[in-house]
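Justification of computing resources. Each target in the renewal requires a structure prediction run like the one illustrated here; the chain below, 97 residues long, is used simply to show the kind of job we budget for.
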Amino acid sequence: MNTTELEAAAFRRLLAHLRERSDVQNIDLMITAGFCRNCLADWYRDAAAERGADLSKDQAREHIYGMPFGEWKSRYQKDATPEQLAAFERSQKKTHG
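Resulting structure tokens:
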């Protein structure tokens, strides 16, 4: 087994974990980890483009979320609380300022 196969398996496990943990909001991921499901979708799309594949933003998000983004959003995404927004702002200052 090569490194690429291991990395792919780990990535599939990460996707499965994030799909199971729909209770964890993207803003909380951004606050604590500096990335979220949308970031993963962007990275996935970038990887496709680097390899000559044309993948839309919606297609990439559907792959990461396991369903169309709009459906995931309506099922699971909650409005950010003032506390979450403040924590997000603080986290952005740490990484960008």
